Amino acid sequence: MAGLALSRAQAQDIEKVSQAQHDKSMTDPGPENKGLSDISPNGFVPPPTDHGEAPEFWNSFSIAHRRIQPGGWTRQVTVEDFPISKDIAGVNMRLTAGGIRELHWHEAAEWALMLSGKARLTALDYEQRAYVKDVVQGDLWFFPPGVPHSIQGLEPDGCEFLLVFDNGNFSEGNTTLLTDWLRHVPREVLAKNWGVPDQALNDLYTVPAEGLFIFQKGVPGPLADDQHAVAGDKGLTPVAFDFPMHSMDPTFKTKSGEVRIVDSRNFPVTTISMAHVIVKPGGLRELHWHPNANEWQYYLEGTGRMTVFFTAAKARTMDFNPGDVGYVPQTFGHYIENTGDKDLIFIEMFKDVRYHDLSLSTWVTHAPEQLITDHLRITPETLHAIPRGGSTVVPS
Ligand code: MN
Ligand code: MN
User: How much is the pTM?
Assistant: First the structure.
């Protein structure tokens, strides 16, 4: 039956015909939102390996409403906008120099990355000791549930930062604001609570009914003065609510990139873990999965694509750009490939005190050889060529 076997040339002819048919079939007379289809070429023209009805795992702060007030703005991606992310919500906020994010707290834990500029943080720990600290680009902070805090932009140009909360239902519009709360306590009760005359509180009751939230004031004085003023007889808190990620050595480094992992092992206060990943042009964050938590991603620089495999033949590929948010359900296999000519930089966030990932390469090189070659239909030589180490970012 040798006549049925296709020569290599014949197979390539068939490939050409089917490619021509495919090109014809995927034409799109429109209407089309070119801005959106152009930013995700892999979403618009999926690789042939994509298949099935995968849930949406792309979103972007760039399409979110910005609540702009004197002093800055905020925007968010919560479960309302991004249904797949039930356990993590993100907020992106900008404060001008002197702009204040009002003193407040919330039930969710708050993890943050400073994206640019400089800010002053204040807080009170669970033992009621004060914290005041200035943070710069590349710093992280973490405030546990109920810890009251504020953020104020400093000179010369305020700041911008990303907040990650361990609850997809979190909203910046539903936090306990100092002025919102007190504005809704009977004046004579608040006067009695503090032992001050009612009239001394008149101006407090003129703030907007929903509180100040973000407002413009002058920049604060030297940090040391604020620290001295708030220490009181309890002293300042020994709790490190901030972490200088910008001065941390990479946890993993290859010729194709760097990964920095920050979790409760090096940042004890946090219950949210992070991997900060740099993938150089031509590099690939290797095929892997996370056994312990869902992954919420934020893209900082460059362009990349990710395919998420949702089991049962369902897979989808999307492109990611700065300001975008991605998501991978717990245990689902994925990779992230740099598709541009500049570094791709993103963070992977997890609602867990510890970061864990499992590498496809490490798995298949640490199982009985016959078992793996029987599954993958590859030769032992090919199996031996696979990196045994699990390189995180490849080629290594
Ligand atoms: Mn907060
Ligand atoms: Mn991952």
Answer: 0.94
